[in-house]
Design goal:
With 181 residues, the chain is α+β, with helices and mostly antiparallel strands. The protein folds into 2 domains: 16-71, Arc Repressor Mutant (Orthogonal Bundle), CATH 1.10.1220; 77-160, ACT-like. Chain A, domain 2 (Alpha-Beta Plaits, 2-Layer Sandwich), CATH 3.30.70. It has 4 helices and 7 strands. The chain has helices spanning 35-48, 53-71, 93-103, 131-142; strands at residues 16-18, 25-27, 77-87, 108-115, 120-130, 147-160, 176-179. The strands form 2 sheets. The chain has a 5-stranded antiparallel beta sheet with strand order 4-5-3-6-7, with helices on one face. The protein has a two-stranded antiparallel sheet with strand order 1-2. Strand 1 and strand 2 (25-27) form a beta hairpin. Helix 1 (35-48) crosses helix 2. The longest helix has 19 residues, at 53-71. The termini are far apart.
Length: 181
């Protein structure tokens, strides 16, 4: 039963449903949630006054798809902040994360770790480089077992040596990164 007392259909289905009031066609997708996540979903339904779990999940999926599309935007270069929580008890996870960062030292500009408790840490990694390479690195790290709540904030930039101020200076093997758009 949902938070609103309506039955939950747990049968595997891939049907298209047409809603007579709106004429919208919807595809039925069945998901499984842990009891804790199901309870959180019910809290969200109640707090935001959704008419059903389906409406809440539809909004959450829509928000996730918008975020995915933003992360997939076109642009040759970017600066990004990749943040995630990891469980140090997962065998070799901190070492695998460090090795991945060292293998991509050309992308990793900085990182900082906040210890949350005896087991969990939150890390924020500042990345810069070719957009596709940064996305691939972020996806690879977020896919590691034991990494949770991974999100990336990506800013498309244009590398260059242009200046809006008078005076000369030497760049010593770096270029300016100006926000695109």
């Amino acid at each position: 039963m949902s938070a609103l007392g309506e039955p939950i259909d747990l049968r595997p289905a891939r049907a298209y449903i047409c809603y007579p009031m709106t004429g919208q066609t919807m595809q039925r997708v069945t998901i499984s949630l842990s009891p804790a996540l199901g309870s959180q979903l019910d809290e969200l339904v109640k707090e935001r006054q959704y008419p059903s779990r389906s409406e809440a999940v539809r909004d959450l999926v829509g928000e996730g798809m918008e975020r995915w599309r933003a992360e997939s935007g076109e642009g040759a270069h970017c600066v990004a902040n990749l943040s995630y929580v990891f469980d140090r008890r997962i065998r070799s996870l901190p070492q695998r994360i460090a090795e991945l960062q060292h293998a991509h030292h050309d992308l990793v500009a900085a990182s900082t770790v906040v210890r949350l408790d005896h087991f969990y840490s939150m890390e924020s990694v500042i990345l810069k480089g070719p957009t596709e390479t940064v996305r691939t690195f972020a996806d690879r790290l977020r896919a590691e077992r034991g990494v949770r709540f991974g999100s990336i904030n990506l800013l498309l930039v244009t590398p260059g040596d242009g200046h809006d101020h008078p005076g000369d200076h030497v760049h010593h093997d770096h270029s300016h990164l100006s926000p695109s758009g």
